[in-house]
Amino acid sequence: MKIIKNILCYLVINSLLMATFSIVAVDTNTGEVGSAGGSCIAGSIIISDIHPGVGAIHTQSYYLPANQNYASTLMDEGYSPEEIIEFLEENDVQNNPSIRQYGVIDIY
Question: Which helix (H) or strand (E) holds 21?
């Protein structure tokens, strides 16, 4: 009976939790880039776009491949994290940047 109570408690607690986390890091000495994250939004399987030796882009909340591709292109062209986020806010494909969260880091 105690096991059943523990399982039910676990299921209730986990069904109520809605959390998102994201971490990106770069090693400026080696150029290594890493990231991890999780999203409570359904369909958020891909949140990270890693550019070895350059940086990383994380998209949380409502991920949109077109925006991520745009951000990736900007990173490849040498734009700063601040510029990338600004461009994403100004040029959201669905014209609704308020539903997205971005984290961008580079090694420079």
Answer: strand 21-26
Residue by residue, pLDDT tens for the chain (108 residues) are 677 766 655 555 555 556 778 888 899 999 999 888 877 777 666 678 999 999 999 888 788 889 999 999 999 999 999 999 999 999 999 999 998 889 999 998
Distance from C-alpha of 83 to C-alpha of 2, rounded to nearest angstrom: 55
Quote the CA–CA distance of 23 and 12 in Å, as a whole number. 27
SS3 31: coil
Handedness of CA 69, 18, 106, 85 (dihedral sign): positive
